UniProtKB/TrEMBL annotation, chain A:
Residues 146-248 form the DUF1980 domain. It comes from Actinomycetospora aeridis. InterPro entries: DUF1980, DUF1980_C. This is TIGR03943 family protein. The chain crosses the membrane at residues 7-26, 38-57, 78-96. It comes from the Bacteria. Pfam families: DUF1980_C. Keywords: Membrane, Transmembrane, Transmembrane helix.
């Protein structure tokens, strides 16, 4: 691969890195704190390429032994860099969703069991799913069993649900570094009042994002049930895909 | 380099022609892909393929900043750290330089993608290969960020941090010393040991040229590794891990292989290991020690940086040493498989 091509390729790679941070699609792949490193990496790549191009235009490119050393390293493998450029320019793969719950993200998210902050004030405060599971693990008969909270997630077919819980679980993907290490946090949904209605039947296809209001059934979410509490549903509503789409 | 060809023209014609060819190929590929965008999107929108595409891009986006950090450091070393300085800092005997370089690895807070270009550049600047390799293995595994991440991931098992440090440090030193004793210079591609020419090019230009060269070369291999990891991630059934709970030896073997094929970032692997709570601590420690030392992404990067002849020897060596050190460290710290 010639110097000119390397420069163009680096501008493209750096450019897509800057692009995904600017348009926010980087949150489909990495954590929010990655914004700065990804942006910096993009700027550095573009700068390095521009410096190289300017030097070439002025005829100051290393000649003779110099370019022997520096040019011949970029073998055919360098062409692989075209792949992420094409993927991010043309396709922009979507965030992992319910399809990943039985595959890549099938592991249960690690539960920290240290959340002893008081619940946020207000009627049915919004909590993260991982937060609910962690608080329940810390205290299976704590305030979550006596107060309603609102949690957001997508519906997936229930797995290992206890008697009394319905046919769907509420799930969310948790990432630590990037989407490759995704894991699943889930709660079973119990529906004593029939509030779930048609949502209770397991469907497939696109992710069905919902906000569910309810309270944790006392005694669930312990090591015995693999830290999957059962949430008794009061009401629910469909919602748009949240942004960011993962929990952390 | 010893007998430069006569320079009658400032640029050899072949290079100019070659250059235009690859640029045309690149533009052509981009045009074709753009024209086929619709079918391409549909092709990648099928269940497993879509997941693999997301994981592939995620690994690339996650790793590229660290690779860029590594190549910037590599460029800085090439431009401003002369071989003479490195010779003064490091002990003359390779066997003593190994632990010093390994300790230096503790202060580079990156994951494995950053350490490969740096280790390659250290070799180019005359650092003994064994010492550069000890640095390569130590930097991603025992830096403060990784150790803190491990402590956060295992709040109930603080001894995991010590065990991981011990196992990874022993791996870096062990491989370094084995390389002093048995390593052969010809296994590493000759181009690696050629320092950048000292022909009056300004320092900042050497810096930019080296960084560009390293990022193009290593970037291609990184993408290759990310591709392999994403395929494995969607192909390996998660049910594999069920039923390993009672079999420690088998669990250690499976976790060692998983660490290689999953190619997780060393700052994230502790959380994955922590979530596999059905397994005893020992197999999970093996996962944490092997992962930063040898995985598909790293082997691809190493093949690019040091040559294939190097990679086919170094990867199995590191794998065996890492598994051994992890098991030894685990038995020592945990007092059993647990």
């Amino acid at each position: 691969m010639s110097r000119d091509t390397q420069h163009v390729l680096l501008v493209l790679v750096g450019g897509v890195l800057v692009k995904i941070v600017v348009d926010g699609s980087y949150l489909r792949y990495v954590k929010p704190w990655s914004a700065t490193p990804v942006l910096l990496a993009g700027v550095v790549l573009v700068t390095v390429a521009v410096v190289g191009m300017v030097r070439d235009l002025r005829g100051r490119a290393p000649a003779g032994a110099g370019h022997d050393h520096l040019d011949h390293g970029a073998g055919p493998s360098a062409w692989m860099l075209v792949l992420p450029v094409l993927a991010l320019l043309l396709v922009v793969p979507p965030a992992l969703g319910s399809a990943a719950v039985d595959g890549v993200g099938a592991r249960a998210a690690p539960v920290s069991a240290v959340a002893d902050d008081p619940l946020p004030a207000g009627d049915a405060p919004a909590l993260g799913l991982l937060d609910v599971v962690s608080r329940t693990a810390a205290d299976p008969s704590g305030p979550l069993t006596t107060r309603d909270v609102t949690v957001t997630g997508f519906l997936v077919p229930a797995r290992g649900a206890p008697t009394g819980a319905g046919a769907v679980d509420l799930a969310r993907l948790v990432i630590t570094c990037c989407a490759a290490d995704a894991s699943t946090v889930r709660v079973h949904l119990a529906d004593p009042r029939g509030a779930l209605g048609e949502a209770a039947t397991g469907g497939s296809g696109d992710d069905r994002w919902v906000a569910v209001r309810g309270r944790v059934v006392a005694g669930t979410g312990t090591p015995d049930d693999g830290h999957v509490p059962t949430l008794s549903v009061t009401s629910w509503s469909p919602v748009a895909t949240p942004d960011p789409v993962y929990e952390y | 380099m010893s007998s430069p060809p006569p320079r009658t023209t400032p640029r050899p014609a072949s290079r100019t022609r070659h250059g235009s060819v690859s640029l045309v190929v690149l533009c052509g590929a981009l045009l074709v892909a753009t024209a086929l965008q619709g079918p391409l999107v549909r092709l990648l929108d099928v269940g497993v393929v879509r997941t693999a595409a997301t994981v592939f891009v995620a690994v690339c986006v996650q790793a590229l900043p660290f690779l860029v950090l590594g190549t910037v450091l590599s460029g800085a070393i090439a431009a401003w750290v002369s071989p003479a300085v490195l010779r003064r800092v490091l002990p003359a005997r390779p066997a003593l330089a190994v632990p010093v370089a390994g300790a230096a690895g503790m202060v580079l807070p990156g994951c494995e993608c950053a350490s490969v270009p740096v280790a390659r550049r250290l070799t180019a600047q005359g650092v003994p290969e064994a010492a550069a390799l000890a640095f390569l293995l130590a930097a991603p595994a025992i830096n403060p960020v990784v150790l803190v991440a491990t402590a956060v991931a295992f709040p109930d098992h603080p001894e995991m941090v010590g065990a991981r440090f011990l196992g990874s440090a022993a791996t870096a030193l062990g491989v370094g010393w084995l390389w002093v004793r048995y390593g052969r210079a010809e296994w590493i591609a000759a181009r690696v040991r050629r320092p950048p020419p000292d022909d009056g090019t300004p320092r900042w230009a050497v810096f930019a040229e080296t960084a560009r060269h390293d990022v193009v070369e290593a970037g291609g291999f990184l993408v290759l590794g990310a591709l392999a990891a994403s395929v494995v991630t969607v192909v390996v059934p998660s049910a594999w891990l069920d039923g390993l709970a009672g079999r420690v030896v088998l669990a250690c073997a499976v976790m060692a292989v998983l660490a290689v094929v999953l190619a997780l970032c060393s700052e994230a692997d502790a959380f994955v290991a922590a979530s596999l709570s059905a397994l005893p601590l020992l197999p999970r420690l093996v996962f944490l020690v092997v992962g930063p030392a040898v995985d598909v992404k790293l082997v691809a990067l190493q093949a690019g940086a040091f040559g294939r002849a190097f990679a086919v020897r170094f990867a199995p060596l590191t794998f065996v040493v890492a598994v051994t050190c992890a098991v030894a460290a685990g038995l020592l710290v945990f007092g059993g498989p647990r």
